[in-house]
Design a protein that fits this description.
GO molecular function: GTP binding; uracil phosphoribosyltransferase activity
Enzyme class: transferase
EC number: 2.4.2.9
Mean pLDDT: 93
InterPro entries: PRTase-like, PRTase_dom, UPRTase/APRTase
Number of domains: 1
Structural class: alpha/beta
Number of strands: 15
Family: Belongs to the UPRTase family.
Strand content: 25-35%
């Protein structure tokens, strides 16, 4: 793995990911598992954030405290990225949320942009791009390009992902070598229709209970 790609090895994360994989896991449990893993990803990906000091008052006396200095942006890729958003908002309640709509065309497997809620000018210092699955890497790369075109340097973007394929990670790293990626698991294979194997299945469908019979 690249030194800019960080794979979480925490036992709780591994257990949550194993629960997500199971076919018997229902939508409520799946949402909770995505949320819990996203908290871990957010904590790990933000541990080097710049801080600023302030003087505060406790019931006993004064103290010197710290606050996160940068303005934070969250960019969930619709719709599955919504499953990660609340977890990151727990960590950064004042974060701005920029929804990015991209879907993968079923025949060509190429990303198609259909929605962007980015302001005309950059308004944050760092963006956490939220995408539960990196399969072929096409959707993540398209979203990254949208953020770069908006004016965010790659060095100020961090990609948070629950599960990735080797193929998808390699594609994203080849196109954005300076990008930091945080992921809780990496699977070896893709199916012929671009699904991660063994994977989690369709994350959006499992999150929002829209699985087809």
């Amino acid at each position: 793995m690249s030194d800019k790609t960080h794979v979480l090895t925490h036992p709780v994360v591994r257990a949550r990911l194993s629960k997500l994989r199971q076919l018997s896991t229902n939508s409520k449990e799946f949402r909770e598992g995505i949320h819990d893993i996203s908290i871990f990803l957010g904590i790990e990906a933000s541990k080097d954030l710049e801080e600023e000091e302030f003087t505060g008052q406790t019931p006993i006396g004064t103290f010197t405290g710290t606050a996160v200095k940068p303005n934070i942006g969250l960019a969930p890729i619709l719709r599955a990225g919504l499953g990660m958003t609340d977890a990151l908002l727990n960590l950064f309640p004042a974060a701005q949320v920029f929804h990015l709509g991209i879907f993968r065309e079923k025949v060509t497997l190429q990303p198609v942009e259909y929605y962007s809620k980015l302001p005309s000018n950059t308004t944050v210092d760092i963006v956490y791009l939220l995408d539960p699955l990196i399969a072929t890497g096409g959707t993540a790369s398209a979203a990254l390009q949208m953020l770069v075109d908006w004016g965010m340097p790659v060095s100020r973007i961090k990609l948070l992902c629950v599960l990735a394929s080797h193929t998808g990670l390699n594609r994203v790293r080849s196109e954005f070598p300076e990008l930091e990626i945080w992921v809780s698991g990496v699977d070896p294979e893709l199916t012929d229709n671009g699904l991660i194997a063994p994977g989690l299945g369709d994350t959006g469908d499992r999150l929002f209970n829209t699985l087809k019979e």
